[in-house]
Amino acid sequence: MSAREWIGKDFYRELGVSSDASQEEIKKAYRKLARENHPDANPGNTEAEQKFKAVSEAYGVLSDPEKRKEYDEARRLFGTGGAGGFGFPGGGGTGGAGGFDLGDIFGQGAASGGFGGLGDMLGNLFGRRGGGGATAARGQRGADVETDVRIGFAEAVKGATLPLRLSSPATCGTCGGNGARPGTQPRVCPTCAGVGLVNRSQGAFSFSEPCQDCRGRGSIIDDPCPECLGEGVSTRTRTLTVRIPAGVDDGQRIRLAGQGEPGRGGATAGDLYVRVHVNPDPVFGRSGNDLTITVPVEFSELALGTTITVPTLESKVSLRVPAGTANGRVLRVRGKGIVKRDGTQGDLLVTLQVAIPAKLDGKAKAALEKYADTVAKHDPRPEITALLRDRGA
Predict the structure, then answer these.
(1) Are 168 and 254 found together in one domain?
(2) Of the residues 100, 208, 238, 241, which has the fewest C-beta atoms closer than 10 A?
(3) What is its main location (predicted)?
(4) Which residues are annotated as a binding site for Zn(2+)?
């Protein structure tokens, strides 16, 4: 894709966000659109598939701070119009004496330095380097892809290996990515001799621009692949194995390098980001690398002291409760939490909570009333009693 074609696209509009949107807003918009238009959710829907590819392309640029900066700068310099004028004086076409063609200034510099620095600045974004001489066209790195998985609480704590079924753009399996029908090969473009750029003069200046015959690829496909129509990329379903590390947090992303969309023109593939969602556990909670659990106890157990049995993720432990332990106290069982990356473990935090019976039978009620009479002279809230006394209550 030429520089003119890329800048002519409005990636912000594709994602439905403003040009000053934060990275989080861009990510949120992409995830929503990708889910809505995913091929798995819209089988046979060509329009949804094209939208899925468009938002993936837009996210591939806007999610990369460096690419986004270059894209924004190019839009600021050349305007955001269609692929023809880009805001240049008289720039309504592909060149001529009336104005500048956008392609004119992306290549090598003029005789006195000219636009060489500008070509360098845009090189990464548009797939080739600036500078003097005829430089070879450079491929475009594949866009990053993001998907979601949901796992159980125990799997998040201990780690797991999961199969991941993914439908996304990938190297075409029919042509192997070269875009040509099997049994044929792309041929070197005779216009640019495989460079992807052509030189032309305008007055005293000489410029390079993407070759119109091969669209900057350096090769021409006479008989396109029937599956990918010459793009070298097609949407297919593949199964990957993703390893979830022990101690993964809810919402954490795992990066699988090179498993995103394939690059074009021999460039590297993008990355796959797997966002992990952890189901809550009915018994355990989590605080950093510590596991948490709330254990109901009787009032008598706190007052007199006792030993209770507490479950861990893998077994159980016995825990001594000292006499006179306050309700809500947290006891720590060391080394029974989540494994950290350095090999150490967090702890199990046990919160003791008095269980109040909804009803008492006659014997229990009588015993409790006797206890109440015994401790009637004991004031459990002396500070409050003193305050009420001062206020004449």
Answers:
(1) yes
(2) 241
(3) cytoplasm
(4) 172, 175, 189, 192, 211, 214, 225, 228
